[in-house]
Write a structure and sequence with these properties.
With 115 residues, this protein is α+β, with helices and mostly antiparallel strands. The strands form three sheets. It has a two-stranded antiparallel ribbon. It has a two-stranded antiparallel sheet with strand order 3-4.
């Protein structure tokens, strides 16, 4: 799952990694984790609380409520942040949002205010 979502058309509101979220990872016995986490701490939470460890190429099943995706371990944090938490990084010039900060920075090099 390496696609860049066009969040300006698919989401009414873009969330910040500084916001607090409830973890809806489904664990043992079908119960949600329910921990409150800051978006910026998603990776640490997945590692420490849900055992997401190993090589970056390892395939990991997303156990977020209602999700059936399998992604590489290196992509699970971005998947959870973008798809389930709605975290994105908006351009301060045109408001187009990106799930990767590197794509935002590349966009900003050529972004102009619409005339």
């Amino acid at each position: 799952m390496e696609c860049e979502h066009n969040l300006t058309t698919t989401m009414a509101y873009v969330h910040s990694p500084d916001e607090l979220f409830q973890c809806m990872w489904v664990g043992e016995y079908g119960l949600h984790c329910n921990d409150l986490i800051f978006g910026r701490d998603t990776s640490v939470h997945l590692r420490n609380c849900h055992g997401i460890r190993g090589a970056d190429e390892l395939l990991v099943r997303c156990c977020w409520e209602g999700c059936t995706e399998t992604v590489k371990k290196e992509s699970i944090t971005r998947h959870v942040q973008a798809v389930h938490l709605g975290i994105a990084y908006p351009c301060n010039i045109c408001n187009k949002a990106f799930t990767r900060t590197s794509n935002l920075e590349a966009h900003k090099r050529n972004c102009r205010i619409p005339q």
